Amino acid sequence: MKLLVTRPEPGASATAARLVAMGHEPVLLPCLSVTPLPAKLPPYPAALVVTSGQAVPALPARLHGVPVFCVGDATAAKLRMAGFTRVESAAGDAEALTRLIVARNMPGTHVLAVGERHGRKLAEDLRRAGFSVLRRRVYKVSAPRAMPEDIRAGLAGGAFDGALFYSAETARAFARLDPPGTAAMRAYVLSQNVAKGLQDTRWAAIHRATAPTEADLMALLA
After folding, report:
1. pTM of the entire predicted model
2. Per-residue pLDDT tens digits for 105-129
3. What is the DSSP string of 180-209?
4. Considering only CA atoms, which of 44, 162, 62, 161 is closest in space to residue 111?
5. Which of 81, 126, 140, 185 has the smallest number of Cβ neighbours within 10 A?
């Protein structure tokens, strides 16, 4: 299948390589770009909480021994590659991450390292559960104002079979580009929350991964 990959880099290129290995034809249309921000983190947090692999480059080496709770296995792998040694994945979504942190019940301040405007609900949920949480912005995201003309023409001409969406924010950014031709395409989404980001866009079908992992998303394309 010819598929649009809408996630930001560097994840977009990694996903494209997996799709090529599966025999598909990916076309990159990153609907968000990520810019690191100076990370103002306390020297000795009890734990780090990470909801996206985009936060990992901003985390300093002095925290490599700190326990890290993260939302999914892909982010866990990225943390371990960066040098973090005490990583635990919720293998799910933000609700699963909250349940994991509550179950571990680690005392002390948890630092939630997130993107600009991200993580407010997670922080509130953890505070209601009795945890001390510092929410710190370590990157920001921006959306493109226009779609490349060659991709728009391909969409209008029915050249694409489907598109992949990893986050609700990416899905909403794609919808704001007013894409033509999606009514004849299939959307493949990581979760129900991601599907909600496409609610203003018509699709032939929206296929949701069984669990919010890339392996489950790719299984929809096998």
Report:
1. 0.76
2. 999 999 999 988 888 999 999 999 9
3. SSGGGSEEEESSHHHHHTTTTS--SEEEE-
4. 44
5. 81
